[in-house]
Amino acid sequence: MDYSKSGSAKAAKNKPPHSEHNAKGSTKNPFGQPAPKAELIARMKAAAEAKKKKTD
User: Fold this and answer.
1) Listed residue (22, 43, 42) closest to 33, CA to CA
2) Which helix (H) or strand (E) covers residue 49, if one does?
3) Averages of pLDDT over each 10 residues, the chain, 56 residues
């Protein structure tokens, strides 16, 4: 069988189909700058408070 006439090569499958919106090294998530814990706690408390007010 002549494999040279069988068509083009298949595309790579080990690459994600899109780039993530918060990928490491992007503007939203730069390298070497972990989010401060106090900021995370404040966001979590605000979200919990908003959820609590929504259900009341």
Assistant:
1) 22
2) helix 37-55
3) 73 78 80 82 94 85
